[in-house]
Amino acid sequence: MPAYVGRFAPSPSGPLHFGSLLAAVGSYLRARNLGGQWLVRMEDIDPPREVPGAATTILHQLEQYGLHWDGSVRYQSQQNERYEAILAQLYEQRLSYHCDCPRKRIKAVGGIYDRHCRNLAKPAEDCAVRLVNQHGCHQFNDLLLGQIETDSAFASEDFILKRRDGLYAYQLAVVVDDHDQGITEIVRGNDLLEPTVRQISLYHTLNWQTPSFLHLPLAINVDGNKLSKQNHAPALDSTNVSHTMATALDLLGQPLPAELNKAPVAEQLNYAVAAFELTRVPTTRQLAAPCR
């Protein structure tokens, strides 16, 4: 296995938009520039939020933009047995417990869970599973942004690993999959800065090697809101991919020579991979997305 393994892990709640492209391109350039693998994982563990056919659309969009991945695509929906094995391990080690506290109660105590159920030995039925968070990590080093500090109460909270409705929590699935796939560095948007401390806590709990983290700036619309599927960001332009790719590279601080602005995306990416410089990626938290 190469020394560097990166990944792009979209959720199939809709097609990729320009903000998604920034994260995909940033992670792709970093992996390819370092001679590493670039994997794609579909984070499809929340069926109520998923759009039928979106996973296939996303993979087609990546190919259309020249972002070809290594190996086979991993689907989180196919990893239930693995997640259950980790949950069973944590429970046997008394590193997790069942909790039936409603959101209303947690809100009443200030919004941070107060470990009410930690020693009550609740049965599994109609309960969430929470981590006994013995390794509350409230700071970490981001390879782009430097030292990141978060609220210590949030960082040390006994957070949920499996929801009360039976769905697996993002914090559990992302850590297990990144570990199992041998991910050495996680490159993603900085909207996930805060949850990173919880993921580091889980890595420590499981005695697993923690990957490096690199959080990219977010694309925002004219109203100052993050481009997201919830904010109805338009799908990637499929008619002028070279222009869109050139714009994404420019916003990431990796501008193309003028003669490549209209070149096929394969040529654009070949140049960008060879010329990639992390120090040129903006450290600002937000970037204005192009209007359509």
From TrEMBL:
What is any one GO biological process for this UniProt entry? Answer: glutamyl-tRNA aminoacylation
Name the residues that bind ATP.
Answer: K229
The catalytic activity of this protein is classed by the Enzyme Commission as: 6.1.1.-
- Motif 'HIGH' region: chain residues: 10-20
Instruction: Tell me which GO cellular component terms the UniProt record holds.
Output: cytosol
Q: Can you name one GO molecular function term for this protein?
A: ATP binding
The record ties this protein, via InterPro entries, to:
Glu-Q_tRNA(Asp)_Synthase, Glu/Gln-tRNA-synth, Glu/Gln-tRNA-synth_Ib_cat-dom, GluQ/Sye, Rossmann-like_a/b/a_fold
Cofactor names: Zn(2+)
Where is motif 'KMSKS' region found?
226-230
Q: Any idea what this protein is called?
A: Glutamyl-Q tRNA(Asp) synthetase
| Biological classification of the source | Bacteria, Pseudomonadati, Pseudomonadota, Gammaproteobacteria, Alteromonadales
- Gene name per UniProt: gluQ
